[in-house]
Every structure is written in structure tokens, then in C-alpha cells.
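Task 17 of the worksheet. Students: predict the tertiary structure of the chain below and write it out as C-alpha cells. Keep your answer in the requested format; marks are given for formatting as well as content.
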Amino acid sequence: MGVYAGFVDTDMNKSYNVPKVQPKVVVDSVLAAIETGSEEVLADDRAREVATNFVKESKVHEQKHQQAWDQERFNRN
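Model answer:
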């Protein structure tokens, strides 16, 4: 099973000033996927956006997320 999430609200990501998904949401999504036999979990809006954009245009996706990464890297608390 592939589990995909944006930033999860953990100590590892506490320095990022971005929207974060709660760990319980990720866990609940995984458990639901196990029960239904799903092979993929898109646990939050960011993961769903990335998956959608990746399918549409991978080059645009790469550029957009590189820009977001560059911007977030300089916006840490």
C-alpha cells in the first residue's frame, strides 16, 4: 500500500509554517484503506493535489512544488 501525505503535524515538521494533517487522520485513512483493500492512501488535501497535478502535467507539477519547497525553506519559524 502506498501512503501519501503532505506535512504531518509532528515534531519533525514543527518548524514549517504550512498546513499540516493530524497523525490520527493519516492513521484512520490507512486503516480504512486496509478494510476496503485499497492500494493507495491520499491522506490529506496536499497529497490529493499533488496526485491530481502529477497526472495532469508532471512538468508543471515539478516546477510548482519546487517553488513551494524553495519558499517554505525560507519561511521556517
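Marker's comment: Residues 8 and 39 are 20 Å apart (CA to CA). The radius of gyration is 14 Å.
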